[in-house]
Design goal:
- By secondary structure, the protein is of the alpha+beta class.
- It folds into 2 domains: about 230 residues, no CATH class; about 180 residues, no CATH class.
- About 20% of the residues lie in helices and about 15% in strands.
- The protein is built from 12 helices and 11 strands.
- The strands form 3 sheets. Strands 5, 6, 7, 8 and 11 form a 5-stranded antiparallel sheet that branches.
- The longest helix has 15 residues.
- The protein is globular and about 70 Å long.
- It binds delta-meso nitroheme.
- The site of delta-meso nitroheme (N7H) has 26 residues, from strand 5, helix 9, strand 8 and helix 11.
């Protein structure tokens, strides 16, 4: 089995609380920072084992990860064997398809973020207490560079991301940790955890059971997205206009908002399926009597969940990430609903996804999924038409994008999409070490 009491909880389990604060900081005084981290903060770092049982969950879960410049500042100079991590995300912006870095949060421009504290609780007041504790302990040892507060959406939208889709459905299964549900991707632990079986890279021994954390602040232009669906959905016989807009959205994601996979339910939502782990991953895009190289009658080749996990389109790709993001920002306001536009005048109205993905190799995980799959209009290869960009996250460097298979009645047609409705505000690559590595290597 895996040493679950030594692995930070967000990696395998996720914090799954109503509120989650990300606190990005730089380190001014490494010596003092280490001492306080070792003696006062490390005991509060939450393990996977603690998060697995409600009874052992702390009232505020705490995790901690470092960027390359953070480790260097702490004089931890071993090469972790991940060139993408070493360079940092700012250097990766163009490669990820971002149209430059003008939209990036100032803190992420460059390499001045040294680490991130992740704090999660069902109570914002308790997160505030934890934050005051950390800031009060470290005082001038750190400078807070940026914070982002994630929150579960209200009422029936709980668990849904800002466009309205149920999230957190499909994760890779590590059998040594939890048995797979039908259709779940089975991976070696070393695809997610450094130094475990299946991680082919040579690393320092202390890096074992850590994981690379790709963080992205992804703004979502919610009224604009729904406006596009309403304006561009092809008329479908038997469906009302709002129903055809729903269908177009479902074809862009590969799931209905409820989470039901369109591969099994191509023409209408199937209530109850999306939340049922026995059913919600039980599909692979292949269907008896249909040719997987031409069939988009079930799911478009470029649907978000097909671009990021091609299932039967590709034989056993080891490209997999553990996702642990949470929505941030307020609900759409009535003024935005009326105008159909996100309000750019007030940055408090920014909303989106605090995207978090864990993997043992960034070049095979987040970076690969974004660059080589979502952004590449030729992927999935070997189809009868050019698949097009991932309509949700695909980026074309600020230029318009294309989606094939949008029209269930004629899947050879392609639809032009605007440059984005998910806008990168930047991010950073971090390493989330094992708890023992924090205590015995990083903080000494
Ligand atoms: Fe995606 N969305 O609301 O449309 N994602 N995603 N994602 N995503 C998934 O299966 C979304 C992003 C993956 O194994 C669902 O949990 C949004 C990035 C992967 O079947 C929905 C944003 C990357 C999967 C969304 C966003 C990925 C996945 C279905 C940004 C990687 C699992 C629910 C704001 C580069 C695929 C679920 C599988 C699922 C949405 C970002 C990857 C609804 C809004 C940046 C691997």
């Amino acid at each position: 089995g895996l040493p679950l009491d030594n692995i930070q909880g967000d990696i395998l389990v996720g914090m799954k609380k109503h509120e989650q604060q990300f606190l990005f900081f730089s380190i001014n005084n490494p010596k003092s920072f280490k001492l306080k981290l070792r003696t006062l903060v490390a005991p509060f770092i939450t393990s996977a084992k603690q998060l697995m049982n409600v009874k052992t969950q702390p009232i505020v879960a705490l995790n901690l990860a470092f960027s390359q410049t953070g480790l260097t500042t702490l004089n931890v100079t071993d090469d972790l064997g991940d060139a993408v991590f070493t360079k940092g995300q700012f250097a990766d912006a163009t490669n990820l398809g971002d149209p430059g870095t003008d939209n990036w949060k100032p803190a992420f421009k460059g390499t001045s973020v040294h680490g991130v504290f992740l704090m999660a609780s069902d109570s914002k007041a308790l997160i505030d207490v934890m934050e005051l504790f950390l800031v009060g302990i470290f005082l001038k040892d750190i400078t807070v560079q940026h914070t982002l507060l994630g929150n579960v959406r209200p009422g029936s939208e709980a668990g849904h991301e800002m466009f309205g889709w149920l999230d957190g459905i499909a994760q890779p299964s590590i059998p040594a940790f939890q048995a797979p549900f039908p259709g779940q991707q089975v991976v070696d632990p070393g695809v997610i955890l450094v130094g475990e079986t299946g991680d082919p890279v040579t690393r320092p021994a202390w890096a074992k059971d850590g994981s690379f954390l790709a963080f992205r602040q992804l703004q979502q232009l919610v009224p604009e997205f729904h406006g596009f669906l309403n304006a561009s959905a092809p008329a479908v016989p038997g469906l009302t206009q709002p129903q055809s807009a729903d269908l177009l959205g479902a074809r862009m994601v590969g799931r209905w908002k409820s989470g039901a996979p369109i591969d099994n339910f191509p023409t209408a939502d199937a209530p109850g399926v999306g939340a049922d782990p026995m059913q919600n991953n039980n599909f692979n895009f292949a269907h008896d009597g249909f040719d997987i190289t031409t069939d988009q009658s079930h799911c478009p080749f470029d649907a978000h969940i097909r671009k990021t996990r091609p299932r039967a389109d590709l034989v056993a790709p080891a490209n997999s990430i553990m996702r642990s993001g949470i929505p941030y920002g307020p609900e759409v306001t009535s003024a935005e609903l009326v105008s159909g536009k996100s309000d750019p005048s007030d940055s408090k109205n920014e909303r989106g996804l605090a995207f978090v993905a864990y993997q043992a190799q960034l070049a095979k995980g987040f970076q690969f999924l974004q660059h080589s799959w979502a952004n590449n209009p030729n992927f999935v290869f070997g189809k009868n038409v050019k698949p097009g960009h991932d309509p949700i996250i695909g980026a074309n460097g600020g230029l318009p994008r294309n989606m094939s298979g949008f029209d269930i009645a004629d899947t050879t047609q392609s639809l032009q999409l605007p440059a984005d409705w998910i806008r990168s505000r930047g991010g950073e690559y971090f390493f989330s070490p094992s708890i023992s590595a924090i205590k015995t290597v990083i903080a000494v």
